[in-house]
Design brief:
Elements (H helix, E strand, L loop, with lengths): L3 E4 L5 H12 L3 E6 L6 H7 L3 E5 L5 H15 L4 E4 L14 H29 L2 E6 L12 H21 L4 E8 L26 H8 L10 H13 L6 E4 L4 H17 L1 H8 L8
Parallel strand pairs: 1-2, 1-4, 2-3, 4-5, 5-6, 6-7
Helix pairs in contact: 1-7, 3-4, 4-5
Length: about 280
């Protein structure tokens, strides 16, 4: 049976590929973007199977209105894809309050508004999939990405909690953690040159040069292949709570978790001291 999707960030990148893959197999999609003009080609190619919606995920009222329109138009929703987001780059010391708040408003709060708007419908029908696009950056952290990491690490915890909350209603949550994908120029995107840059402090110029020398060198994934993988994921009866898309970052993530476990083990003596030996009397 065909599915009905609600996808944020549908104008380009992975989101656009997800929408095209769903439509190509006969599914229906409520596709959201900041402007519907960016969705005109989809409508021309797929007609009534696409509901184009102009929506900014940071506008809570607009999110709830868009989800309601999608349900009224298609009758129900099966797959929610929280894809909208961007990466704010800059050292923690360089970030303005506005930049950090904007990053969280889009990547974190925008995703929360979509979930809160859609979940009552999914609970009522006792079925549905919530797909959260996180990132390899939600599992490891590197210099100059503090704001982006903060948003993605928050999404990881929020959606893991959500998965436990909605399981009894037949709703399943999966966090997708992509590595780099060639979504624009055919090359792996350079995270240090993405248009969202903090005002540079010369104190970090050396760090920027060192990171710039290796930025974007991971093998770029194929967005079309990622979209086909997503179709298999939403069709699975027992999807994982987390899944990596792409292989470039897997060795780094594996090493990061190995290092964390070793650090905790190495410092167990001090951890025990911090616990203390408080004895409570029975009363």
């Amino acid at each position: 049976m065909s599915k009905v999707w609600f996808v944020t960030g549908s104008s380009r990148g992975l989101g656009r590929n997800f929408v095209e893959a769903a439509l190509s197999r006969g599914d229906k999609v409520a596709a959201t973007a900041r402007t519907t003009e960016s969705l005109d080609e989809l409508v021309a190619a797929h007609g009534d199977a696409v509901l184009p919606l102009a929506m900014d995920v940071t506008d809570k009222a607009a999110v709830f209105e868009s989800v309601t329109r999608a349900v009224e138009h298609f009758g129900h929703l099966d797959v929610i894809v929280n894809n909208a987001g961007y990466a704010q780059i800059g050292a923690v010391e360089e970030l303005t309050e506005r930049q950090l708040r904007d990053q969280l408003e889009t990547n974190l709060f925008g995703a929360v508004w979509v979930v809160q708007a859609a979940l009552p419908y999914l609970r009522a029908q006792r079925s549905g999939r919530i797909i959260q696009l996180s990132s390899a950056a939600g599992l490891i952290a590197m210099p100059l990405g503090g704001a982006y990491h903060a948003s993605k690490w928050a999404l990881e915890g929020l959606n893991e909690a959500l998965a436990g909350e909605v399981a009894e209603f037949g709703v399943k949550v999966t966090i997708i953690e992509p590595g780099g994908f060639a979504t624009r120029s055919g090359k792996n995107p350079d995270p240090l040159n993405n248009g969202h840059m903090a005002e540079p402090d010369p104190a970090y110029d050396g760090l920027r040069r060192r990171l710039g020398a290796v930025a974007g060198k991971q093998p770029a994934g194929d967005p079309a292949a990622a979209a086909q993988a997503l179709l298999k994921l939403v069709d699975s009866d027992n999807p994982p709570v987390r899944i990596l898309f792409g292989q470039g970052f897997y060795p780094m993530i594996q090493q990061a978790y190995t290092d964390r476990l070793k650090t905790w083990a190495d410092w167990q003596d001090l951890s025990a001291e911090a616990h203390g030996n408080l004895v409570q009397e029975d009363r």
